[in-house]
Design a protein that fits this description.
With 374 residues, this protein is an all-alpha fold. It has twelve helices and no strands. It has two domains: 200 residues, no CATH class; 171 residues, no CATH class.
């Protein structure tokens, strides 16, 4: 028990050291609103963490260190070199190699750094709230924000960390890994929302405001569903279950196995009864993801086209269209080019970028000046 506590403290020290570098960047910045800068840096690192998490998953490094939070009860793979080499010698193409161990631990170090920055946000948010309660700070130009958003972020990142631990201890169980992915994107979305709250000006919308207030959240939900289907493809290793595009293994509608494809609580590669997962189930998982993609593309694309008619959102609408096109091309490219790692990672990054931009759009549309007047 003491050894585990010492290990946990050592890993927290690593996260503190990495987070301190980011805090130094915030402190040295010329931005007068240091809290806003802190959130912006956290958004940047969280986006990087999500992309690197996708790289970890796609390189099959999720069990590179088969225990948690350390690596064979050590704080880094260098100290666990003998155990890792022994596991690699026993299974040369197995989940444990030196490279995979480092990939997994770097992912954990980055996660701890993000957690440390969120702790810093909580401290600063509560300090500002306490100061603004006093009369001598009444004339302060700092925005009077509630500290509860930052506090909720701390709870959320702890929940995300718990699913990260269960990802390892439950041996990459698909529902746990998919939930871990969605929670990571949820954390990114909440951080972007917090960052938007620190902006001092509201945008003005035209007569299309009522349409945008409906379409923006609908597009966000459909995008979220599509990412969930994509995560289910990745965590079940079904990326190449369908060859060719737009057909799947030469047909538009293959034989589908709904019973096994979306049974959530089961082990990796197995059915709920413990038998091998049928190939038809993997085909179904892939086919649903590529089919529902058109629904998400239509919703997000329609939103972007309407945004292009709004003077204050035109640039953001063009950016959404560009990322949406890139996302489609990388998705199709992974099939045509037999799942190259670079394209697969870029496809994951595109999904995270769309979540980031649609969060910005939803905030700006909801709190537009016309919405305030209404």
């Amino acid at each position: 028990m003491i050894d585990k506590l010492v290990l946990a403290l050592a890993l927290l020290a690593v996260g503190f050291a990495l987070g301190s570098i980011a805090l130094w960047v915030v402190w040295r910045s010329k931005d007068t609103n240091k809290y806003r800068k802190l959130i912006a840096v956290t958004v940047f690192l969280t986006f990087d963490l999500i992309v690197f998490g996708g790289f970890t998953r796609l390189t099959d490094s999720g069990l590179g260190c088969p225990d948690w939070p350390g690596c064979y009860s050590e704080m880094n793979p260098l100290l666990a070199h003998e155990e890792i080499k022994a596991a690699e010698a026993a299974l040369p193409h197995g989940p444990v190699t030196v490279a995979k161990a480092w990939i997994e631990m770097i992912h954990r170090y980055l996660a701890m750094a993000v957690g440390m920055l969120i702790v810093a946000q909580v401290i600063v948010a509560w300090r500002m709230w306490y100061q603004n309660r006093h009369a001598q700070f009444a004339a302060s130009k700092q925005p009077k924000r509630s500290p509860w958003m930052a506090s909720f972020l701390l709870f959320f990142v702890c929940l995300q960390g718990a699913f990260g631990a269960w990802t390892v201890t439950l041996k990459l169980q698909p529902i746990i890994v998919t939930t871990h992915l969605l929670l990571g994107l949820g954390l990114l979305s909440l951080l972007v929302w917090s960052l938007e709250r620190e902006q001092t000006s509201l945008i003005k919308l035209t007569h299309r405001a009522s349409v945008l207030r409906i379409l923006a959240p609908v597009a966000f939900v459909l995008l979220w569903m599509q990412i969930g289907f994509g995560g289910w493809v990745s965590t079940n290793y079904a990326a190449l279950a369908c060859t060719g595009y737009p057909t799947c293994n030469g047909v538009l509608l293959p034989d589908l196995d709904w019973e096994h494809a979306f049974h959530l609580w089961r082990k990796l590669g197995q059915t709920a009864e413990g038998e091998y997962l049928p190939y038809s189930a993997l085909v179904t998982i892939q086919w649903v993801h590529r089919s529902f993609a058109w629904v998400a593309i239509f919703a997000v694309g329609s939103l972007a086209m309407i945004l292009r008619s709004e003077p204050h959102l035109k640039i953001l609408g063009n950016q959404v269209l560009a990322v949406l096109l890139l996302q489609f091309l990388t998705g199709v490219g992974t099939v045509y080019f037999n799942w190259p790692l670079a394209l697969a990672v870029l496809h994951n990054a595109g999904a995270a970028m769309l979540v980031l931009m649609l969060t910005m759009i939803n905030y700006r549309v909801r709190y537009s000046s016309s919405a305030q007047a209404a």
